[in-house]
């Protein structure tokens, strides 16, 4: 009831305000009209108590809002939900496949890396042996050349005297 009175008071104020002002070419948006329905008192309720409930709706609201086909809306939402569920499942499967592919590629890289390390180890062992044996040969050659050089120095020193 109060909403109807408030709406009527607003309209009266709007009419008074437009009468005192000159008419211009402005467009006003129509205000929705509130319609209320008061439910009767239940037995045992006091007459002065606020025991009524009012249902308010606007006359300018779309009539399709009042006559919605809830079953069709439910079916539409159900189909959309099912479509999204399928899409999530497909994305999960694709993600799992990619993880499997990455794991397989990682395993292959590890085996290749291990094989390369074995080959490198095989190649480095002989070269280190060669380095060791070559180093000992060079030391022996160097010692022999030192002795030979010493002998030549002695021969030359005896010739000059």
Written overview of the protein:
The chain is mainly α and 161 residues long. It has two domains: 2-67, no CATH class; 69-161. Helices cover 71% and strands 6% of the residues. It has three helices and two strands. Strands 1-2 form a two-stranded antiparallel sheet. The longest helix has 91 residues, at 70-160. The chain is elongated, with a radius of gyration of 52 Å.
Give the SSE map:
Elements: H1 2-20, E1 34-38, E2 54-58, H2 63-66, H3 70-160
Antiparallel strand pairs: 1-2
Multimeric state: single chain
Tally of structural domains = 2
Q: Give the percentage of residues in beta strands.
A: 5-15%
Structural class determined from secondary elements:
mainly alpha
State the share of residues found in helices, binned by percent: over 70%
In DSSP terms, counting alpha (H) and pi (I) runs of 4 or more, how many helices? 3
Question: What value does the Rg take, in angstroms?
Answer: 52 Å
Could you give a short account of the major beta sheet? 2 strands, antiparallel
The overall strand count is 2
Shape: elongated
Uncertain parts: none
InterPro entries: PP1_Regulatory_Subunit, PRKG1_interact
Coiled coil: 67-155
GO cellular component, one term: cytoplasm
Pfam family, one: PRKG1_interact
Summarize the model shown.
With 161 residues, this protein is mainly alpha-helical.
């Amino acid at each position: 009831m109060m909403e109807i009175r408030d709406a009527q008071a607003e309209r009266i104020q709007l009419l008074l305000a437009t009468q005192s002002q000159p008419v211009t070419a402005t467009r006003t948006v129509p205000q929705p009209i509130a319609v209320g329905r008061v439910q009767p008192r239940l037995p045992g309720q006091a007459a002065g108590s606020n025991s009524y409930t009012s249902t308010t709706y606007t006359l300018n609201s779309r009539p399709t809002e009042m006559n919605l086909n809830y079953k069709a809306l439910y079916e539409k939402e159900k189909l959309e939900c099912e479509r999204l569920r399928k899409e999530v499942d497909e994305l999960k499967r694709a993600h799992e496949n990619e993880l499997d592919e990455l794991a397989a590629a990682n395993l292959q890289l590890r085996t290749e890396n291990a094989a390369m390390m074995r080959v490198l180890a095989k190649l480095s062992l002989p070269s280190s042996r060669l380095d060791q044996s070559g180093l000992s040969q060079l030391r022996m050659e160097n010692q022999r050349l030192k002795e030979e050089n010493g002998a030549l120095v002695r021969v030359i020193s005896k010739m000059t005297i």
